[in-house]
Design brief:
The chain has about 625 residues and is of the alpha+beta class. The chain is built from seven helices and 31 strands. Helix content is about 15%, strand content about 30%. Strand 19 and strand 20 (about 300-310) form a beta hairpin.
């Protein structure tokens, strides 16, 4: 049975624009780099051709991926006169861009693309960028279209008034400060000095660029909430001319069969589904939706296709008094990997849609039911695949800050109530009594962080797979923690709040989260955490080096707890950690996050190599271990 608009999403390529394309012969990946099997097959013609916004599908769109003109100039320079070619949507530093060079601290990237517009309709034309790292200005036909700040999330410009018949030009100027002091840029795991747990910066356009024709009044966004009782609430966010007495009409379908149809006000109404088939990791069923914007005259002004999963998350105490996660009223243990979402050939951007599916199929076979998406927001298609394949996603807010000297001290969960600070001597990162657990951020930096946080929640709200918002990881960029936690709770009460994975813990939200390497631990004797769902948000990190599959042989290439002497010892270490987690589960732990899905740059602690060509443990073996120790997501 059809589980969503996947077939349509894969084939919707009805374009009203004609692109001026460059020759494939002008591009090749940067030399001497690690490639995945999907990266090896990328060409300018097939680079990310899929529809980029699965939760709101319109047929009339144009993909702008492919070869663009680009140049790198000093920050004070004017628009360049000479250009080279770069493959969009891959960042400047990546092999798949065809460039593979670093952006200097005093440099900017310029992009240029030409396209033909043979006809002009009566509606609007939107220019969409799914991700540009970090701040950009955009011109169309030498006219200013707008600017955007934030490298992790989609944004758009209405360029209707700037377009001409026939030949048109789009130009971008992109600045990426990464970890420059005093910039407070939300950058996740990117750092110029990419050692240890930090990775190579990723600058410029790194996700799909596309155009879309919409009516003069249109659905900018829809907000969907489906619960276990079959209640679907829907709200439309409208752009364009005011619609007096306008309505929405939603049709809910099981595959192609209509099961409910109802109209209501644009600002929100509910639809009831009888005997809903509930969404879960075991049965990730998705209902197809058709959403129409109706004028007061009865005319359909706009229409989009979408989908919804009916599910309710919650928490309840077990017989021993421990808080547990629930899904659709039943207890569920969350088991999944820490997932960095980095690729050797595309960095932040997977080399292809099929690569995402490959990873998720591995994790599903391995018996994981959850993925912790670490300090990164993925392309929107990633969450669509999580929806249809059945994963619970813990979504981190992307971290940032001025640098480690500006971070607060790290107060681990086990440090609560400790008055003797002897353990902190010689470690400048560790908290000791009297140290701050929140950094001081300037107002403008906090406002930008909150803007990106809000956009992330808005962008991913409709995805049933997303069940946790993690405001901070450890102490990275942690500031105004209580204020931010209260805001998240008020803005989205349908999901769990993890205020800080691994600390610094504040008494807000649903989760108390400890990080422990290599084996999982939790300070169960501290009563402060008894009012929260207790989880081990990171553990493991067992390393194993696979010869011929290292990103850089000159790096330290490390794993937590030192490297084992054999692959059998590596597997034994995993079994030991799984056994300890099983024991902790019996004592009240409700989730475990294993570090990590793949090797990344100098980290060789993945379940598979960075190029995704070697599994260090077969997924079936991992599944058997999880079942043996009672941590198989049940």
């Amino acid at each position: 049975m059809k589980k969503g608009p996947y077939t349509k999403l894969a084939s919707t390529l009805i374009c009203s624009f004609i692109m001026i394309s460059k020759s494939n012969a002008e591009w090749k990946p940067a030399e001497s780099t690690m490639m995945t099997q999907w990266g090896e097959n990328v060409t300018p013609e097939n680079a990310w051709t899929e529809y980029p916004r699965p939760q709101m599908v319109r047929e009339n769109w144009t993909n702008f991926n492919g070869l663009w003109d680009f140049a790198v100039t000093p920050r004070g320079a004017a628009k360049p006169k000479t250009w080279k070619s770069i493959l969009v949507p891959f960042a400047l530093e990546t092999p798949l861009s065809g460039i593979g060079r670093r952006l200097g601290e005093k440099e900017v990237i310029w992009y240029r693309r030409n396209f033909d517009l043979p006809t002009r309709g009566d509606g609007r034309t939107l220019l969409h960028f799914e991700g540009v790292d970090y701040a950009c200005r955009v011109w169309v036909n030498n006219e200013y279209a707008g600017s955007h700040m934030g490298g992790n999330l989609p944004f758009s410009f209405d360029v209707t008034s700037l377009l001409k018949e026939n030949s048109n030009e789009v130009v971008l100027r992109v600045v990426d400060d990464t970890d420059s002091n005093d910039r407070y840029q939300l950058r996740g795991k990117q750092r110029r000095d990419n050692k240890g747990i930090w990775y190579t910066p990723s600058s410029g356009i790194w996700q799909t660029v596309w155009m879309e024709e919409v009516p003069s009044s249109y659905l900018e966004r829809i907000k969907l909430t489906g619960d276990m009782d079959g209640n679907l609430s829907i709200k439309g966010i409208i752009e364009g001319d005011a619609l007096k007495n306008g309505k929405l009409r939603v049709s809910v379908m099981e595959g192609e069969k209509s099961v409910s149809k109802k109209s209501g006000p644009v600002d929100g109404f509910s639809v009831k589904i009888k005997n809903p088939r509930l969404w879960s990791p075991e049965d990730p069923y998705l209902y197809n939706l058709s959403v129409e914007l109706i004028h007061s005259s009865g005319k359909v002004i706009d229409q989009v296709d979408s989908y919804v999963g009916f599910r309710t998350i919650g928490k309840e105490k077990d017989a021993a008094g421990h808080w547990r996660f629930t899904l659709n009223g039943s207890e569920i243990f969350h088991l999944g990997p820490l997932d960095q979402g980095w690729w050797p050939d595309g960095f932040l951007n997977p080399p292809a849609d099929e690569a995402i599916v490959f990873e998720m199929e591995f994790l599903k076979k391995a018996g994981f039911n959850m993925i912790r998406k670490h300090k990164k927001v993925e392309p929107r298609r990633y969450y669509y695949h999580a929806d249809r394949m059945g994963f619970l996603v813990w979504q981190d807010h992307v971290s940032g800050g001025a640098g480690p000297n500006e971070w607060p001290k790290w107060k681990r969960l086990w440090m609560h109530g400790k008055e003797d600070a002897d353990w902190a001597k010689g470690n400048n990162n560790r908290w000791k009594p009297g140290d701050k657990v929140d950094a001081d951020w300037p107002a403008w930096a906090h406002q930008q962080s909150m803007a990106e946080l809000k956009t992330m929640i808005d962008t991913l709200y409709n995805n049933p797979s997303v069940v946790v918002w993690t405001a901070f990881n450890e102490r990275w960029g942690q500031h105004l923690s209580m204020d931010i936690g209260k805001w998240i709770q008020s803005y989205d009460s349908t999901r769990y709040l993890n205020i800080a994975s691994g600390g610094n813990f504040f008494e807000i939200g649903d989760i108390a989260d400890e990080h422990s390497y290599p084996d999982p631990e939790f300070p169960l004797d501290i009563s402060l955490y008894d009012d929260y769902v207790k989880v081990v948000g990171e553990f493991g990190g067992h390393g194993w080096l696979v010869e011929g599959h290292q990103w850089d042989t000159s790096m330290r290439n490390w794993g937590y707890g030192g490297l084992p002497s054999s692959i059998d010892e590596y597997k034994d270490r995993y079994r030991k950690s799984a056994g300890i987690l099983g024991e902790l589960k019996s004592k009240g732990i409700a989730a475990g996050v294993y570090t990590q899905t793949t090797d990344v740059e100098g980290e060789i602690n993945g379940l598979m190599t960075y190029d995704r060509k070697v599994f260090k443990m077969e997924p079936e073996e991992l599944s058997r271990i999880h079942t043996e120790h009672g941590i198989d997501g049940k």
